[in-house]
Amino acid sequence: MNEQTATTSTTATASFESGVGFWLKRAYLAIRKEYDEELAKHELTYPQWEIVRMLCSQDGIEQRNVQQRLGIQSATLTGIVDGLVDRHLVERRLSPDDARVKELYLTDEGKCMQQLSPEVLTRINTRIAQDFSGTELALFKEWLMRVVHNLEDEA
């Protein structure tokens, strides 16, 4: 590699790593790793836990609404829900109003997972926030919401 190529490569890497997107992705991956490790103790994946958590606050939600809220494809959601059904944590029921619509409900075993949500959230949020003041956290959250707003506005 010649000197020009090495300099260009180093500059491109430095520029890439100084971008906001790079650090948002790194933060997401670090947080996701924490969740994965914590949830593995309970034999849950992060996507499964997201669904259980959602059903804890709104049992009987339509499967397509879960898909929209999580921003995932139908086939992906079906696989995740199948795993929860196989573990007897969630059951699918046909809507009494429209037999074409599937609703998701926590089973009794799934309801036992409700206590897991606050424990996991508290542990991970405490780790995330450990070096931030309350003011810094409030600003950080505001900025993240602004990033989401900016990007969703353009879509």
SSE blueprint and pairings:
Layout lengths: L2 H15 L2 H21 L5 H12 L3 E2 H8 L3 H13 L3 E5 L7 E5 L1 H4 L4 H14 L4 H21 L1
Antiparallel strand pairs: 1-3, 2-3
Task: Give a verbal description of the structure.
The protein is mostly helical. It has one domain (23-154): Arc Repressor Mutant, subunit A (Orthogonal Bundle), CATH 1.10.10.10. 70% of the residues lie in helices and 8% in strands. It is built from eight helices and three strands. Strands 1-3-2 form a three-stranded antiparallel beta sheet. The chain starts with a helix and ends with a helix. The mean pLDDT is 87.
Provide the structure class. Answer: mainly alpha
Give the CA-CA distance, first to last residue: 41 Å
Instruction: Please tell me the overall pLDDT.
Output: 87
* Major beta-sheet overview: 3 strands, antiparallel
CATH class label: Mainly Alpha
Q: How much of the polypeptide forms β-strand, as a percent range?
A: 5-15%
Poorly predicted regions = none
What does the overall shape look like?
Answer: globular
Tell me what the CATH architecture is.
Orthogonal Bundle
CATH homologous superfamily annotation:
Winged helix-like DNA-binding domain superfamily/Winged helix DNA-binding domain
Question: Using DSSP, what is the number of strands?
Answer: 3
Supply the key terms.
155 residues; Arc Repressor Mutant, subunit A; mainly alpha
Please summarize what this structure is.
It is built from 8 helices and 3 strands. It has helices spanning about 5-15, 20-40, 45-55, 65-70, 75-85, 110, 115-130, 135-155, and strands spanning about 60, 90-95, 100-105. The longest helix has 21 residues, at about 20-40.
